[in-house]
Specification:
heterodimer, A: four-stranded antiparallel beta sheet, 15 helices, B: alpha+beta, seven-stranded antiparallel beta sheet, globular
Chain lengths: 516, 144
């Protein structure tokens, strides 16, 4: 009997994207069914809220300071241990299809193996597995770049290459150009046919790889959709699924401008500085876009396009699961579904992401549908878990001992299981140094329904700032309790918990080698 | 300067400058450059990723051993200046070691980290070519 793991990730997807998590816009019946049959995690947090550090954590099972990828543009060291490598060495077949991003994207001199593979169409690194994967085929967020999808589109459908949004502008900054009906940044009408869009391509390449496997093969497949990360340019044929004018504004979007700005002022100062266009702290949001210009209709249109992309992902996953079931493999198939980080999507009057440790970016969808043959009872886990726990979970499924270099632990299978582990807290870190000189450093611990963030000195902070959110009383995170004397002891306990969790910074931080 | 890298190469300044001061030879020692052709004051770099850079050569000063250029396309930079200097290092010019300094300033700064990392590789490639007589790896070896 073989053991099979389908690890499904999206990119920049919110907790409320899914019907099983209370989402009311996108229809996600496939993931909802997995959740009903398996374990749904109410509070899964990333260890960093941008792609490269978070993905490095998923692959290594390590906290950011231990794998060293402290911001986008820092490549995961070539010799970093990975869970895919462990499985490969144990005789498993291993593949990754879609977005990897363990190495920088912006690479004109082709310094990184992932980009060389994407450029040439190779599916391994000169005959060797790369980061433990026998086969890798990459996709990014558009029709160009050093990824297999771009090569395929250029070869098979060259007329569609200009159909997509240009993720970068002519200055190589993240593009601020707007489109659609509202002029929202990174919204674009994309005439590409659905079956040529990267979501379906990722599912197609996954299925093609699975078709080459034998019934007896143990396999680990990371199917990694680039959506719903911006740009928001789903196939135009699908946009009508969610008419933006029909949408209510998100609960997290304060509609009154004065109220919105008052709430931002109650947070650490970089929130308001970014909103006003006074600070560019990181590359991931368009530097030339000022959040204060965001309109309610733009929020609706971004929301609508995002949910169209969420539906396409659900349907693509459904196709892959049907192909697996047709092979008779479903009974021994574990499916884990999650994302790397969230998206503001209008919350707090903002879009995109950055050094902001709130639920918009930190509360993630996470579903583990254990193999039916394992006989695990469906459950909902309320306590916090981290993406750092994924790699140890895969080890557990495979019957491998969790190696000492992993920081996480196998995911709990129930709330009782979580409680029995002694209230494990979850750590999220951010460090960034922008070429403009802006530095931001913060660390967050989540435990007992509280989220506590501490800032270190930087160009916007003197190190005295912090945020303390009571998720039970204040799920929209509008009342910062950091300076509330009544909560001082809670704050002190959480900061002590944070200090206990936080690894030491590496003596020599890894060098940033690209903006993304 | 946004990027400042330097390397001591165990070869005389004249030997190093014989390579650096010939701008059409840059692809011989800069990993990830496929070709570097010069026509008049325009240098066209073809990169291993399939793109290209257009540059204007500003100064090639054989007496001071200074080369300056700016990127003019295809993307838009409000400002760019690249400068390579070769100077004696240590006590024994002209036969001793050379200090090669490679600097860049640019605005906007999206490419700063890319150029910094690539120039670090390039100086190693320059040393390989001058000292060992072999060109740097054309597609770049991962040094991360």
């Amino acid at each position: 009997m073989a053991t099979r793991i389908l690890f499904v990730t999206t990119d920049q997807q919110r907790y409320d994207a899914l019907g099983c998590n209370g989402g009311r816009i996108a229809r996600t019946p496939v993931i909802d069914r997995l959740a009903a049959e398996g374990i749904r995690y109410e509070r899964a947090h990333p260890q960093n809220v941008v792609c490269m550090p978070s993905r490095a954590t998923m692959l290594t099972g390590q906290h950011v300071r231990n794998h060293g990828v402290w911001m986008n543009g820092v490549p995961l060291p070539a010799d970093a241990p990975t869970v895919a490598g462990l499985l490969h060495d144990a005789g498993w077949r291993t593949g990754l299809f879609g977005k990897a991003h363990f190495e920088p994207f912006l690479d004109p001199f082709l310094r990184f193996p992932e980009n060389r593979m994407g450029r040439t169409g190779a599916t391994d690194d000169d005959g060797r597995p790369h980061r433990g994967f026998d086969r890798m085929e990459f996709a990014g967020h558009g029709s160009v770049g050093l990824v297999h999808y771009a090569g395929w589109l250029l070869a098979e459908h060259p007329e569609q290459v200009p159909s997509f949004y240009r993720a970068l502008d002519l200055s190589l900054d993240v593009n601020a150009a707007g489109g659609g009906d509202t002029g929202a940044p990174q919204v674009h009408d994309n005439p590409v046919p659905r079956d040529q869009y990267h979501t379906d391509w990722v599912a197609d390449r996954t299925t093609a790889w699975l078709d080459g496997l034998d019934d007896a093969d143990d396999w680990f497949c990371w199917m990694s959709f680039p959506d719903p990360h911006h740009p928001w340019d789903p196939p135009a044929s699908e946009v009508g699924r969610v008419p933006w004018r029909d949408l209510d504004l998100p609960e997290g979007y304060p509609t009154d401008r004065a109220e919105r700005e008052r709430l931002l002022d109650a947070k650490a100062p970089h929130w308001r500085r970014w909103y006003d266009g006074d600070l560019v702290s990181n590359y991931e949001a368009p530097a030339k876009w000022v959040p204060a210009t965001l309109t309610a209709d733009q929020v609706r249109e971004v929301d609508a396009r995002t949910h169209v992309e969420n539906e396409l992902i659900d349907e693509a996953l459904g196709r892959v699961l049907a192909a697996i079931a047709a092979k008779g493999w479903d009974d021994d198939l574990h499916v884990v579904f999650t994302t790397d980080h969230g998206e503001f999507q209008g919350d707090h009057g903002l879009l995109f992401k950055g050094p902001y440790h709130v639920d918009s970016l930190m509360r993630l969808p996470l579903v583990w549908r254990p193999a039916p043959s394992a006989g695990v009872a469906p459950a909902v886990v309320d306590g916090p878990v981290g993406l750092v726990d994924l790699a140890p979970t895969f080890c557990g499924i495979a019957g491998l001992e969790v190696p000492g270099w992993m920081d996480g632990a196998p995911l709990p299978a129930s709330s009782a299981d979580w409680s029995a582990r002694g209230r494990p807290a979850v750590l999220t870190e951010w460090d960034s140094v922008h070429p403009s000189g802006a530095e931001v450093h913060l660390q967050t611990v989540t435990l007992d329904g509280m989220v506590c963030t501490r800032y270190e000195p930087g160009t916007s902070h003197d190190g005295s700032e912090g945020e303390l959110w009571d998720l039970g009383d204040d799920p929209l995170q509008r009342g910062n309790l950091w300076d509330d004397p009544v909560r001082r002891s809670v704050r002190d306990e959480l900061v002590a918990e944070l200090d206990a969790l936080l690894p030491d910074r590496p003596a020599e931080p890894l060098r940033v080698q690209a903006p993304v | 300067m946004d990027v400042h890298r330097e390397l001591v190469i165990e070869a005389s300044p004249d030997a190093v400058w014989a390579v650096v001061g010939a701008p059409e030879r840059q692809a011989e020692w800069f990993p990830g450059m496929v070709s570097s052709e010069v026509e008049g004051t325009t240098r066209t770099i073809v990169t291993a990723a399939g793109g290209f850079l257009l540059e204007e050569l500003l100064i090639v000063d054989h007496d001071r051993r200074v080369l300056e250029y700016r990127i003019t396309g295809p993307f838009h930079l409000d400002h760019h200046l690249g400068r390579i200097t070769v100077a004696p290092a240590g006590e024994d010019p002209p036969d001793g070691a050379s200090l090669v300094t490679y600097e860049q300033e640019l605005e906007p700064k999206a490419l700063v980290a890319v150029l910094d990392a690539a120039i670090g590789d390039a100086l190693v490639g320059l040393g390989d070519l001058v000292v060992n007589g072999r060109p740097g790896a054309q597609e770049g070896e991962p040094r991360f």
